[in-house]
Amino acid sequence: MKAAVIYGPGDIRIEDMPYPKPEPGEVIVRIRACGICGSDLPRALDGKAHFYPTVVGHEAAGEIVELGSKVTRFSPGDRVAVAPLVPCMECEACQLGRYSLCGQYSFVGSRRQGCMAEYVAIPERSLVPIPEELSFEQAAMLEPATVPLYGLLKVGSLAGLRVAVLGVGTIGLFAVMWAKFLGASQVIAVDISDWKLERARELGADEVINSKDLGVREGGLVGAIKTVTSGAGCDLAVETAGHPTTQVQAVEICANGGKVLYVGTAHEPVHFAPKAFEAIVRKELVIYGSWMSYSAPFPGREWQIAAKALSDGALDPSAMITHRFELSKAREAFETLRSCDTAIKVMLFMDDN
Question: Under CATH, to which class is 2-140+316-349 assigned?
């Protein structure tokens, strides 16, 4: 079978690999579509993979072609999306149903072979059935759709809330759509790209703010948020950019008694000035951290809600899929996601699809 095999930074080769053999409890999935996640970039281009050679890719969908022993939930021909976490199911976190916090987990596309291949062996519990009306391309968007939903469900009811989403890449755009879906009265998208902000508006944002254009005299982002919220600030700030600046701004833009949901992870130090940190105390903010997207029963209600919303058309992420490549062009696909200002979700398809 063909696979995009990564040997080192930027060394991506399309090679023949042995057809996988399913272990007990695993199935073989013929991959039809696989999205490139931002977390795949450092593994493919910067030497940050857990091991080499490696095959990445965890945002995927396809059809089952073979069953291992002890498989009970699926049959050959079933259409599925990948829920890539493989928790140990034995540690304290797993016993509590907090699978995202498993300390001994494996993960499709990082700690085990990923989905940028024609076939992959995956545990049956890490698969979600998808209906015929949902295309493989749309189903490959299921995993990123669940990431902000998992955090938003932690926060509680969004009905009537003013929600600001900081950063509108794939996860941020899904956060915009979910906030509207869950009843927010006002959704404000914040980014430094006018092009991405227009996509946010198309997908339901009521207000868009380019924070790069804001000056100190205008009060910066805090002033801009107050302007569009009649002076109140937002009730919930959802930080998805993973940038030190927005991670501080998320606290600053909240109204009294507001909530902050951190979904993005920073790769540089985050510095809170005393006044910014004091805002957490003085405004009595509630801070949520959110990691991955799994709950009990595994993989969790997030996956069921998202699969239904995508199938029903209540959420349509088509505007996010900006580039499509065959597997043989995998290196070009990675470079496009990193370097193209108008790339949001880059999707790979097997060459014969």
Answer: alpha beta
Q: Tokens standing for 237?
A: 């700030």
pLDDT digits (tens, 9 = 90+) for 76-102: 999 999 999 999 999 999 999 999 999
Where in the chain is CATH 3.40.50.720?
A: 148-289
Distances from the Cα of 353 to the Cα of 2, 30, 81, 326, 350, angstroms: 13, 11, 16, 9, 6
CATH topology of domain 148-289: Rossmann fold (3.40.50)
Q: Where in the chain is the domain with CATH 3.90.180.10?
A: 2-140+316-349
Read off the pLDDT of residues 212-227 as tens digits, 9 standing for 90 and up.
988 655 679 999 999 9
The pTM assigned to this predicted structure is: 0.96
DSSP 234-272: EEEEEE-S--HHHHHHHHHTEEEEEEEEE-S--SS----
Taken as a whole, the chain contains a residue count of 353
